[in-house]
Write a structure and sequence with these properties.
Elements lengths: L4 E4 L3 H12 L4 E4 L23 E4 L5 H11 L3 H8 L1 E2 L4 E4 L1 H14 L3 E4 L11 E4 L7 H11 L4 E7 L2 E3 L9 E3 L9 E6 L1 H12 L21 H5 L27 E7 L6 E4 L8 H8 L10 E3 L2 E8 L1 H4 L5 E2 L2 E6 L9 H19 L12 H11 L25 H22 L4
Parallel strand pairs: 1-2, 1-7, 2-6, 7-17
Antiparallel strand pairs: 3-5, 4-5, 8-15, 9-13, 9-14, 10-11, 11-12, 12-13, 16-17
Helix pairs in contact: 1-10, 2-10, 2-12, 3-4
């Protein structure tokens, strides 16, 4: 066995993994195939190059992304430190000068005495070292084949079809009813009933809405099982009534009749703090999604914790494959991090990379691996990735719906978020102290 940690992929997750592992005293070899092997999206040979938006999301400490960033700052995150240094004006968001940011990350890792950077493609997962695979959505074909062999091909996907997720507290429960079709099993779904007039207005708005234009490298084929809601609607006004809005097997207890159309909401976690709009994967722009989906009864004031999307994204069925330490269940010397494990967003990818780096270093040193509590932003995201229902698993970004409920419910949204933030901060500090990271 080699005495260093092999990290494959020099994006945000791989760079943060290398930084955290090296700061734990581990020797790290970071492999990045660029510039020898180019991708369709990258333009430079810098590590942690940002290829899409230059925004790393909200920096507000009372937002879920802000809590995650604060936790990363406590861990001396390289990604967040360089983002803070390269920050450009963007209101409450943390946006960066992408070249200055990536150059800063690259120089910091090049200067670290425990980090060796090799510019070459790794085609197979190493058998002779502890490894972290963090190659992101543009994983090379050779390595994808190796990952497929290790994880079984049925557990590796190459695009995602994501439906919006809604904060439970923002659903008008007086307008929805709980039931499963034909009353089979338990009443697991919240159902939003629509009469014909409401459906017709919704349909007209949906078919006229603005859509996100895919970049060339993101273009993917649509499959019948995951068509965007607006593409289904183009096939005719009745199509959705035989698809995601079909009312069969559902009786509205308020009227005693079957609605004209029904949107079903499925709980996204054990705490029922957020619900998924079943079958509503979409390419609509985020503002259009919020405007049009709020036309559905019960969702007039909906708070969207995640908007829908469909795009190219190599990711694995993590609940089936990963332990909560980010180790592969069947191959504990191999860790995964970044978008490959089903996290959405730059910061989420980097945060998972940081945890993988810390845990890989502890594994190399024979120490107990650190798992943050699920009351923290890191732990809540990790909990979703590794314990969700594998049948419905889709990538996600950090949001308040992932955090467990407070012991005493609070109705005021700002006060509730403040309490979640306080609890997360206290529990994260305690975890760092217990894990020897402070």
């Amino acid at each position: 066995m080699r005495d260093d940690i092999t990290i494959i992929g020099g994006g945000l997750a791989g760079s943060e993994a290398a930084w955290q592992a090296a700061n734990q005293g581990a020797k790290v070899t970071l492999y990045e195939m660029r510039p020898k092997e180019e991708t369709a999206a990258h333009k430079t040979d810098y590590l942690a190059e940002i290829v899409c938006s230059n925004s790393l999301g909200s920096n507000d400490s009372l937002s879920a992304p802000g809590i995650l960033k604060d936790e990363m700052r406590r861990l001396n995150s390289l990604i967040i430190r360089m983002a803070d240094e390269a920050r450009v004006p963007a209101g409450s968001a943390l946006a960066v000068d992408r070249d200055q940011f990536a150059l800063g990350v690259t120089r910091a890792l090049e200067a670290h005495p425990n980090v060796r950077i090799l510019r070459e493609e790794i085609k197979n997962i190493p058998e002779d070292s502890i490894s972290i695979i963090a190659t992101g959505p543009l994983t090379s074909q050779n390595l994808s084949t190796s990952i497929s062999a290790l994880t079984q091909s049925k557990n590796l996907y190459f695009f995602d079809a994501i439906a919006p997720i809604i904060d439970t507290d923002s659903i008008d429960m007086s307008k929805v009813f709980r039931a499963s079709r034909y009353d089979k099993g338990t009443a697991d779904y919240l159902n939003c009933p629509m009469d014909q007039e409401t459906y017709d207005r919704f349909y007209d708005a949906l078919t006229q809405a603005d859509r996100v234009k895919s970049k060339e490298f993101e273009k993917i084929p649509y499959f019948e099982g995951c068509l965007p809601i607006e593409v289904m609607a183009e096939r005719g006004q009745q199509t959705l009534l035989f698809g995601p809005l079909k009312p069969v097997g559902l009786i509205d207890p308020k009227t005693g009749t079957r609605p004209y159309a029904v949107l079903q909401l499925r709980s996204e976690n054990l705490h029922d703090t957020c619900y998924n709009m079943v079958g509503f994967q979409t390419k609509l722009t985020y503002p259009e999604q919020k405007k049009i989906f709020r036309m559905i009864p019960g969702l007039e004031e909906a708070e969207f914790l995640r908007c829908g999307s469909i795009h190219r994204n190599t990711f694995m069925n993590s609940p089936d494959l990963l332990k909560n330490t980010l180790q592969l269940k069947t191959h504990e010397r191999t860790f995964f991090a970044g978008q490959l494990i089903g996290v959405e967003g730059y910061v989420e990818a980097a945060a998972s990379g940081g945890l993988a780096g810390i845990n890989a270093a502890k594994a190399l040193a024979g120490q107990t691996i650190a798992i943050p509590p699920n009351t923290t932003a890191h732990g809540a995201l990790l909990n979703y990735i590794t314990t969700s229902d594998a049948k419905y698993f889709q990538p996600i970004n950090t949001n308040f719906g992932l955090f467990p409920p407070l012991p005493v419910p609070i109705r005021d949204k700002q006060e509730k978020r403040k309490k979640i933030q306080q609890r997360a901060g206290e529990d994260f500090n305690g975890w760092m102290t217990q894990s020897g990271l402070s």
